[in-house]
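Pinned message: reference record for E3 UFM1-protein ligase 1 homolog isoform X3
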Amino acid sequence: MVSEVEKLGRVSLIDLADSTGVDLYHVEKQAEYAVADNPGLMLIQGEIISQHYWDSVAEEINERLQECSQISLAELATQLHVGVELLTSILKPRLGTMVKGRLEGGQLYTPAYVARVSAMVRGAARGITVPTNLSALWSSLQHLLQEMDGASGIAVEGSFFQALFNGQVKEGQLLGSLRAGVYWTPTVFAGAQKECIDSFFSQNSFINYEMLNKLGISQPVQFLQSRYPDGLALVNAFAHPSLTEMVNAAVEDAIERGSWIDSLSVLPTSFGSQDASKILSHCQSLQSALKSQKAFIFGDSYVFSHTFVKDVYDRIEKEMESFNVSGSTGMGLSDDISSRNNDRVSHDSSTSVEANDSPSESSGKHAMEKGSRKKRGKASGNTKTVIVEGTSDNQDYVPAKSKKNQKKSKDTSSLHVSEVKSGARKDPRSQEESLNVPSEEWVVQQIMTLFPDWEEQGIDDPHTILRPLANHLRPMLINSLKEKRKALLTENADKMKRILDDLQRKVDEAFLNLQLYEKALELFDDDQSTSVVLHRHLLRTSAAYIADTLFINLDIYNKVKSGLEVENSQNSELVSLSPGERIDLAKTFRGSMSKKALAVAEVLEGKRIETFMVALRDFAEESGIVLKKLDKKLERTLLHSYRKDLMSQVSAETDPVSLLPKVVSLLYIQFHNKALQAPGRAISVAVLRLKDKLDESAYKILTDYQAATVTLLALVSAATGDEQDCSSDRITTKREFLEGLMPQLKGIVLTPSQP
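Predicted structure (tokens):
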């Protein structure tokens, strides 16, 4: 077996079994012994191969390699019917001796071919001046070799190029840095890159990261920090310490001058607000000023001195006084109404049809006031008015209700309170609006008005600086406003109590009079047209007075409680509101109180006094005002006082027109025990109903006087133009006639001789 192998160099075990005539089993067993004893033999895949065989194969491969310049190991392994790994292990020890070539990437190359490709790699790499991915370079070289070698050329693997390249880098033939094995940065580029960066940074004291990205530096922050350890890494750029010192000096100067500065104005235009904020955080003088509250930073880049901010605050605080008045809902309404109605007071006393319709009402009013004063202690004893201070300084007036009314409205009031609290939690902005505090927009507008030169100082959008400043000032302004209101509320506590006491007194007297007048309307229930006239007259006079008194005084109370200065008119009792003014004032109240006030204002334009009574009681209950009920005893007292006052007025009356209503009212007290308030249109019906109560002579005097009064008023009303001289004579005659009847008319009521 050994001699056969030495003769042939490579023999199959099957062939050895045939040539020796021995069974294959014994041949395989002996082959193992033979290979183990002879190092020059090897048993591979059922074949015994000698080293002489491999030497001859190596010589053949070398001859072929010299002819082709490159051979694929895979092709050789296929031809020799062995594995590529085995062939590689056989050829490696013989490279450079028996095989004149280089093994790389499964290919055998001749030294000339390697030198040729190595020269191509060196030339291509030296031609690169910018960072390059070597994979793209190897692809270009492969394409070039295929064009040079033609169809017979074998494709060269990129690893062969990479190995040649790495060798040249180690030998110093190529200068540069290799990153991640494939990213090549030539030394010439790195030098130019660093030179460019150094030049820009030294000239400008900063450099943008975008510029480094364009230069091929993917991690600019780390690169710059390693190159300039003293620099400051910002969001968009890298700054030299001198830039921080420059900003620090500018800020320090602004603080000393009591002014402000935008740090971006002294920084390069490429810097953003975040860059400025970071530089400001490294300014030592600014940080010291911030700790001592000598300066403030608004909007990342704006630095304000404490002196400037205080000046702005002081000037806006002065404007808050006008804001406090002009910003209040309904402010000035009652004052304007009072001034208008005060001018109207003197005019109302002139001789007119409406003024003379109800002179008995004014006399009756004074009588009722006198009568009510006698019972004042008792009437006011059940009135318990409590001033409730709410959590906010300017909540509308909601006085405590009487014990009787508290029981009725307990559920409603608790529900209202819970709604107010929950509403305040859910919507803080609406709560601020209800507190009447300056809004952010108002503060910004005031700053713009007081300091109009923001745009002149190079600020494109002033709101970018004004809003942070306004947000800083607004809480202080609100606190100042609240303190002032709290102080005013304390000062006005006595004034509020006087307002409520005075209001309760007025309502007590007026409502008792209204109930007294209402009882007289029962006498005319059988006459629908007259009843409507009387009801409307009572609504326009006594009822309107009560509603106006409540509206005006509660409005004054709310304003005083809100800390607002309000002039309380001395003639408030003479103030009367028009329907439009009454509705506008009712709308200024809050919540259900406003709805019930509007209901009162609406029923005043109705036809029945009972409807007004219902609406008035609801509104009074909501506002905490007690309405005193007229009992029999108090009614007798008021009627007696009313009658006594009317008699004194009749006795002293010198105006013939004003005398008639007073006489009629006095007669109704004498015969019906009722206090009648009758307008001019209802006097004739009222006189007619006295026919059965008076004797014929007295009734005739009354009717003649009433007819003459109507005629006189008609003449006065018609006296215009050219007919004025003629009418004047007739008016004088008619007036003299009435003056002659006055003693007889007075005698009817002043002489108690009637049955």
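Pinned by admin. Summary line: Residues 325-434 have pLDDT under 50 and may be disordered.
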